[in-house]
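Try this one yourself first.
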């Protein structure tokens, strides 16, 4: 029996650091790290110790022979990653090897001549919390954690879909740092409103901004502002009880079109299509659950401007969607390139993941009549205009190989990505929606840093923030050593500790 990593892999590599035989890859120092959809256990060398499963912060690792029906395909997904790779460690020789991946990338050592810095971290989502974790575990810094909301958690609490409870469990890992004696919480404090960037800088030795990307990108097409045309971020906030969420999302349409096929689009499609009863025991907002019980939505279309070989979703998420018991998934066969891409795909290609999904012609001119819910994947199709009738959405005009097609729909959701918003007092790059920085150091402002989506743009799951935070914290510590961060000498406490 061996273990396998499954759908909710967060990629933060906690499992890698506890594996005694180095059979989980890619490791943080391998070139693939950060570009694969998940991490994988090599079944040829797993010794079935279970250390990875114990350490996994999101409960994504199980013994292969205990995988539930829907998770069984992940045994193959793990094994497939290694098909053309040599057995990757020397454990087959004799004794296990701990940490077969070199010295730490970032040196936390700092002279004890330096007092511990006071660092403010703005934003309590995953990026901020990985920075907090690094500071509290590997230095003796004191941290003030600030969030504009009255509850901590950021995107973990308000972004992760409620039917992914094990992903949300990573917040349990972070919660213990919020109780740490060297951390002070300041909830309900908004930078730019309740405190300025300069005031924050004056009260702390360094400030790390982990404010994420809280607004939705828009498409800039006609009709986008019509009632019934909404951003996926609004729907996500609604079902996750975000304090700023709209009260009502109108689910009276038979067909909803989601523009984009990233993981956010998949989350929304899945929630709109799941049996409400299956969401009952989740953290979903009770108002949203009640609306979903009365929902008329029977078909959700995932509209992608490119082919299945270039889909934005990740492998674990599309695999889970196609195996979901509550609804069917079909592919609109309007463009012959789709069938060809799937037929010619090899294991490891994105299009290969759709080989078992039925392909059929869809009539877009009328609203679906079927009762069983379904999700339609439509590739090579771009939005041109949100159509309206009687003041609200009546459809979406699309363009593709089959020229212009009007999809009859009562709801259009744009899931085309998030966008960062400026922090008053800090520079902002309008083109990328980020705060300009070099490896986390904010350009033109001493002792000011960024981490997460506001640093690198809105892509990458929760775990991607761990290495991102390590880079930012390493820069901050370098600046303490080099004098660019002026740590006030009055609070000497023995300096930063060496990384354990
Ligand atoms: P995303 O992965 O960047 O997907 C954006 C989608 O919008 C893509 O399909 C993109 O198409 C499409 N798009 C962008 N501009 C468009 C336009 N003008 N017209 C038509 N389509 C357009 O963004 P996301 O879904 O917001 O996710 C953000 C990050 O969070 C991702 O890294 C995602 O994996 C992560 N996330 C992970 C999970 C999870 O692990 N369960 C859940 C939610 C989010 P192109 O590909 O053609 O550009």
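Now uncover the answer:
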């Amino acid at each position: 029996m061996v273990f396998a990593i499954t759908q909710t892999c967060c990629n933060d590599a906690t499992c890698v650091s506890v594996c005694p035989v180095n059979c989980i890859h890619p490791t943080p120092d391998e070139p693939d790290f950060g570009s694969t959809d998940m991490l994988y256990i090599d079944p040829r060398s797993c010794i079935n110790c279970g250390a990875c499963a114990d350490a996994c912060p999101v409960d994504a690792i199980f013994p292969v022979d205990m995988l539930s029906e829907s998770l069984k395909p992940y045994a193959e997904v793990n094994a497939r990653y290694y098909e053309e790779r040599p057995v990757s460690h020397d454990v087959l020789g004799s004794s296990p090897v701990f940490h077969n991946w070199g010295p730490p990338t970032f040196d936390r050592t700092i002279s004890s001549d330096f007092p511990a810095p006071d660092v403010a971290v703005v934003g309590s989502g995953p990026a901020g919390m990985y920075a907090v974790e690094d500071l509290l575990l590997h230095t003796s810094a004191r941290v003030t954690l600030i969030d504009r909301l009255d509850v901590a958690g950021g995107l973990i609490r308000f972004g992760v879909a409620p039917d992914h409870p094990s992903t949300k469990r990573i917040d349990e890992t972070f919660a213990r740092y919020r109780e740490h004696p060297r951390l002070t919480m300041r909830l309900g404090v908004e930078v730019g409103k309740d405190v300025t960037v300069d005031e924050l800088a004056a009260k702390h030795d360094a400030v790390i901004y982990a404010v994420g990307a809280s607004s939705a990108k828009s498409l800039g097409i006609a009709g986008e502002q019509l009632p019934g045309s909404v951003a996926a971020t609004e729907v996500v906030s609604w079902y996750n009880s975000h304090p700023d969420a709209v009260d009502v999302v109108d689910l009276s349409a038979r067909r909803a079109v989601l523009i984009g096929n990233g993981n956010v689009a998949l989350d929304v499609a899945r929630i709109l299509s799941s049996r409400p009863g299956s969401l009952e025991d989740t953290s979903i907002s009770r108002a949203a659950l009640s609306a979903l019980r009365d929902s008329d939505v029977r078909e959700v279309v995932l509209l992608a401007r490119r082919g299945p070989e270039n889909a934005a979703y990740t492998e674990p998420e599309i695999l889970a969607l196609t195996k979901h018991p509550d609804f069917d998934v079909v592919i609109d066969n309007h463009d012959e390139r789709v069938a060809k891409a799937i037929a010619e795909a090899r294991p490891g290609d994105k299009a290969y993941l759709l080989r078992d999904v039925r392909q059929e012609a869809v009539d877009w001119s009328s609203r679906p009549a079927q009762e069983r819910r379904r999700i339609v994947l439509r590739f090579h199709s771009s939005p041109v205009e949100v159509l309206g009738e009687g003041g609200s959405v009546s459809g979406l005009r699309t363009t593709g190989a089959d020229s212009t097609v009007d999809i009859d729909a009562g709801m259009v959701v744009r899931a085309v990505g998030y966008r960062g918003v400026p922090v008053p007092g800090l520079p902002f790059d309008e083109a990328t929606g980020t705060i300009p920085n070099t490896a986390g150091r904010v350009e033109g402002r001493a002792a000011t840093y960024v981490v997460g989506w506001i640093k690198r743009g809105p892509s990458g799951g929760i775990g991607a923030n761990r290495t991102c935070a390590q880079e930012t914290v390493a820069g901050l510590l370098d600046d303490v050593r080099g004098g660019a961060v002026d740590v006030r000498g009055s609070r000497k406490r023995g300096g930063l500790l060496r990384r354990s």
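Discussion: Residues 90-101, 489-500 have pLDDT under 50 and may be disordered. Residues 219, 259-265, 267, 304-306, 312, 314, 317, 382-383, 415-418, 458-461 surround NAP (CB under 6 Å).
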